[in-house]
Design a protein that fits this description.
The protein is of the alpha/beta class and 500 residues long. It has 3 domains: 2-214, MFS general substrate transporter like domains (Growth Hormone, Chain: A, Up-down Bundle); 220-257, no CATH class; 262-499, 3-Layer(aba) Sandwich (Rossmann fold). Helix content is 56%, strand content 15%. The protein contains 17 helices and 11 strands. The chain has helices at 2-33, 36-57, 65-81, 83-93, 97-127, 130-183, 191-210, 212-223, 263-277, 293-298, 314-322, 324-330, 346-352, 370-373, 378-386, 405-416, 488-499, and strands at 227-233, 238-244, 247-252, 255-259, 283-288, 306-310, 339-342, 357-363, 388-397, 421-429, 433-441. Strands 7-6-5-8-9-11-10 form a 7-stranded mixed sheet, sandwiched between helices. α1 runs antiparallel to α2 and α3 packs parallel to α7 (191-210). The model has no long low-confidence stretch (mean pLDDT 91).
Length: 500
């Protein structure tokens, strides 16, 4: 009975580890390559296929079940434990990242497919009751999968990051191997060799956990052209700050959010254009904008009495309000008495709140995943419209009309589909290239104020030029991005692949 319990615990652990490996590969590939729907779909499909291969191959293992099972656990522990590291290195040094990812999925899936059949036969040899063996082992297998699926996004990734999470899962697989090797050494050939190998590998995996931060710094240093001075994994995203001379850059999940050398162009365009068209400036809502740079521009208006910022990630707003270098760029705006920060989902805030605003600034990351795509949907813009005063103005950062014209005009037409007048415009931001915005209102848009003198890029005689687009920056073939038919993410990912 004691041996049976040990084997059931082993089943629980290995199933949870297998789920973690699957999620790690999907998440890392989404982070490095983008198109999370494709990455998760490919990973799940290949993994399930590989499980079938592993189950098929298990029938050829006719003897030495304990030795075979221990070997499988050691192999999957090493391959899975180093999976994050291998993928990041492949992204840095190998042209065909996809090939490495596919091989990794197939190897882990095949080994995982071998685990349960072998373990079932091991337990059956002792208990001689196939019915009870199958019901028990599959129950623990499914429970382990659930634990791994919950632990990865809620505990492991936010607190440990990609490398330490993979090393930890690998360690658990090796612990299972050690348990089998030491507990059932009388049933293993060359048990001493197994003992030495498993313990050494477990020590190496533990060292990987301990030095995961150092590994992360080295890898991140290769991913970014400038020196990495800060890495922070929040529950929602990975924040990296780099610096080269006086140029400080902040990245979210590998995408540049601002460069201190030219961010003023972007934020002047984002804020001051809609402020020209809005009749009143009393109450302003910012959706996103956790770096505080849009708030900095808004605080230049004495008639702005209240600013509400909705940013999901408290880690982001805390960092940008406490980090000295970032605070120097945003002018300490996140500490302003006029500002109220609410760390919650923008969509949920708009659904729950009854507040009305004179200006709404939508400064969200590009729509490169499903969660963000929802914040560019027709329903989202409908909610935004409901929170505007009759003469209120909304402005939406809308990616690049040159690099991603379908995505840009999809956003424009989606806003327009909700009965709003839309005025698209764009400007050059050296760090981003040609970047676009869509300004909208329920009433006719017309300039009602003079431009502030406190700007570095905008001036009265260059504003009209922002509303002109070249022939290669327009596209009339886009659909509306609906909550139930998210076409925008495909437009965006197609543009990313085209420019890579």
């Amino acid at each position: 009975m004691k041996n049976y319990r040990i084997l059931m615990l082993t089943t629980l652990i290995i199933s949870g580890c297998s789920m973690v490996y699957e999620l790690i590969i999907s998440a890392v590939s989404s982070y490095l390559v983008g198109d999370s729907t494709l990455q998760y779909s490919v990973t799940i499909g290949l993994y399930m296929f590989a499980l079938g291969i592993g189950s098929f191959l298990s029938k050829f293992v006719k003897k030495e079940l304990f030795s075979s099972f221990a070997t499988v656990e050691i192999c999957i522990g090493v391959i899975g434990g180093t999976s994050s590291l291998i993928l990041f290195l492949a992204n840095l040094y190998i042209e065909s990242y996809d090939a490495v990812m596919y091989i990794e999925i197939l190897l882990i899936g095949t080994l995982a497919g071998l685990e349960i059949p072998l373990l079932t036969r091991i337990i059956e040899e002792d208990r001689k009751e196939l019915r009870l063996t199958l019901s028990s082992i599959f129950s623990f297998d499914y429970i382990g999968g659930l634990i791994g699926a919950i632990a990865f996004p809620m505990l492991l990734l936010p607190h440990l990051g990609y490398f330490a999470t993979a090393f930890l899962a690998g360690s658990f697989n090796l612990i299972c191997a050690v348990i089998i090797i030491f507990k059932f050494s009388d049933r293993l050939k060359k048990s001493m060799v197994f003992r030495i190998v498993s313990v050494v590998l477990l020590v190496l995996m533990a060292a990987g956990i301990m030095f995961s931060e150092n590994i992360s710094r080295v890898i991140e240093g290769g991913l970014y052209r400038d020196d990495v001075i800060l890495i922070e994994q929040t529950p929602y995203q990975k924040i990296v700050v780099t610096k080269h001379k006086d140029d400080l850059r902040l990245y979210i999940d590998g995408n540049c959010q601002f460069s201190s050398a030219d961010e003023y162009r972007y934020h002047e365009g984002l804020v001051h254009i809609p402020m020209l068209y809005a009749e009143k400036h009393d109450r302003v809502l910012i959706l996103g904008g956790g770096d505080g740079l849009a708030v900095r521009e808004l605080l230049k208006y004495p008639d702005v009495s209240e600013i509400t910022m909705i940013d999901l990630d408290k880690g982001m707003t805390d960092l940008c309000s406490t980090d000295r270098q970032i605070s120097a760029i945003n002018g300490g705006s996140l500490s302003s008495d006029k500002l109220t920060i609410k760390n919650m989902d923008a969509y949920e805030y708009l659904k729950e709140s009854d507040d009305i605003y004179d200006v709404i600034i939508v400064d969200l990351p590009d729509p490169n995943n499903e969660a963000l795509n929802k914040l560019y949907s027709n329903i989202f813009y409908r909610l935004c419209s409901q929170h505007l005063t009759d003469t209120g103005v909304m402005n939406v950062q809308s990616t690049s009309p040159y690099y991603a014209p379908k995505a840009f005009w999809c956003i424009s037409r989606t806003i327009e589909s909700e009965g709003m007048e839309v005025m698209p415009y764009h400007l050059q931001v050296p760090a981003f290239g040609d970047w676009g915005f869509n300004m909208a209102s329920r009433t006719e848009l017309s300039i009602k104020h003079e431009l502030l003198s406190d700007t570095r890029y905008l001036k009265a005689d260059n504003i009209d030029s922002l509303f002109c687009f070249g022939k290669d920056e327009t596209d009339d073939s886009t659909d509306i991005n609906q909550l139930t038919k998210p076409v925008l993410i495909q437009y965006y990912n197609d543009a990313v692949r085209n420019w890579e």
